[in-house]
Amino acid sequence: MQPILKENIITQLQWRYATKKYDPTKKIPAEEWEVLEKSLILAPSSFGMEPWKFFVVTHPEIRIHLVGACWNQAQVADASHLVVLSAKRNISLSDINALIERTAEIRNISPTLLEGFKSMVSEFINTHPALDEWATRQVYIALGQFLTTAALLGIDTTPMEGFHPGQVDELLGLTNSGYGAVLLCAAGYRQADDKYADLAKVRRKREDVIVHI
Amino acid sequence: MQPILKENIITQLQWRYATKKYDPTKKIPAEEWEVLEKSLILAPSSFGMEPWKFFVVTHPEIRIHLVGACWNQAQVADASHLVVLSAKRNISLSDINALIERTAEIRNISPTLLEGFKSMVSEFINTHPALDEWATRQVYIALGQFLTTAALLGIDTTPMEGFHPGQVDELLGLTNSGYGAVLLCAAGYRQADDKYADLAKVRRKREDVIVHI
User: Fold this and answer.
1) Which of B43, B54, B144 sits opposite A142 (nearest CB)?
2) Cβ of B53 under 8 Å from any chain A Cβ?
3) ipTM for the assembly
4) pTM over 0.95, yes/no
């Protein structure tokens, strides 16, 4: 396998920025989009619960309606792709059972071998004071993996927290589905005249961010 | 620049797993660790607020004390590196001012040109019902970027939510520092006999996770 060069990783993470203007004529090729979907599917989560679902919105009319639910951010309609990242609501024992069954199936073992794991996760779920928030946090891991993967592929992205969750849920038919939108992410290719692309990247000083103990 | 191959990205994301046993004799080389620190420094956050600080704990005695605060997870002491990811507490106007000053400095512009941005972020901060939680979510993006970068470098990781935050804060001297530990992540190289490395990766079916609209 051709190694991934350290220098390339840093270059691409530096290159990334929250794209403001997309070229609506440029589409992400299917085989690259496949890598991005895989980055979501393979994203890590606590206990492997995957408390999420990802909606890839290509329907042009829905994309235009979503702009209105997203503080009129044009990227929602103009970018090649739009993902709505949703979190599972009201995680319960049935979610744990599904995880146990899936694990047993994939690993070709009896579910009874997973009783210890099941008890541990059940105890966690039963005593956690804010499961919806816990699920939401996991979705941010998936966002991080998605943004990093896109940068490495040379694909621009715009993560967005600023939208009306109720409206987005309604437009996607998520209301009462057990999932709720927590993040949006546009992906595609920057417009040549997006002036934000040329601005120097702002980060705090290294010593204010990283502390060695 | 040598391109990063799509196949390599998928291979590495598949390769990643939550490592249970580290080889304590194998250390991440400095130049690779540098890439991982850069992945944290360059991690995206809402408004570019970077509401976080990352503690790289190399002190062996502190690492051993941390094991006790982390449900005795041996990775905390055995892995080559350990990062404690903390979130800023009680974000206030002074954090916004620092961001504005830093932006003006790096972009060599007058802070007055950033008044619009400042108002927008201030409005957000002043009206947000749960800023500590918002900051915590951002830290999960940084974790995602860190985990993905490590996987691409062939470095094993173990993200951890399970620890006593108060104890970790105390061991690191974070109590009343304005930052609080929200995640830990061990990084290094798997022990050859870590049986978890060989288990088939469990993920829900693609159609249960990705929905095209």
Assistant:
1) B144
2) yes
3) 0.97
4) yes
